[in-house]
Design goal:
With about 160 residues, the chain is of the alpha+beta class. Helix content is about 40%, strand content about 30%. The protein has two domains: about 70 residues; about 90 residues, no CATH class. It is built from three helices and five strands; from the N terminus they run H-E-E-E-H-E-E-H. It starts with a helix and ends in an 8-residue tail after the last helix. The model has no long low-confidence stretch (mean pLDDT about 90).
């Protein structure tokens, strides 16, 4: 049972590294995408999606668009690099859907090496939250491992 604490701490540390790694990857992709070409698109779907996750209501923007590159038609639903996170703020998501109304024609960016990869916005949606979340997970994991070490070495004796 005592190793459960160590495993728990190690999982927090791994989770922290995972979050930070994904955030750095998204930031790197966004930096590369700054140089991608732009093309006009047409919004084919735009609506607010509501999900219940562990007793919390989260809202997502479900936006689909089509575009043409060198005479070939493509469609996608990616809004920004790094994925689109849900939020409890319905108005924020509603504003995104208003910005991208059906039949509006915003400019999108696309990967010239793989035109199927495209985004409505150049911004990344995940890095700041993921970086801070990763740091918090790392700190929590280190503290848990420190407590485990201090208990195992006898410096701290838990009351029974």
């Amino acid at each position: 049972m005592e190793y459960f604490i160590a495993i728990f701490g190690a999982l927090f540390i791994l989770g922290g590294f995972y979050l930070i790694r994904n955030a750095r990857k998204a930031l790197k992709e966004a930096e590369i995408a700054k140089n991608w070409p732009r093309v006009q698109s047409r919004i084919t779907k735009s609506k607010v999606i509501q999900n219940y996750v562990e007793g919390t209501t989260l809202y997502y923007a479900e936006i689909e668009y089509e575009y043409h590159v060198k005479g070939v038609s493509y469609s996608n639903d990616a809004i920004s690099i790094g994925g689109d996170e849900g939020t409890s703020n319905r108005e924020y998501i509603a504003d995104i859907c208003k910005q991208y109304r059906i039949n509006s024609q915003p400019q999108i960016i696309y990967n010239p090496n793989d035109p199927e990869e495209s985004y409505l916005e150049l911004s990344t949606s995940t890095p700041r939250g993921s970086i801070w979340g990763g740091i918090i997970f790392l700190i929590a994991g280190v503290l848990i491992m420190l407590i485990f070490y201090l208990v195992r070495s006898g410096v701290i004796r838990p009351e029974v």
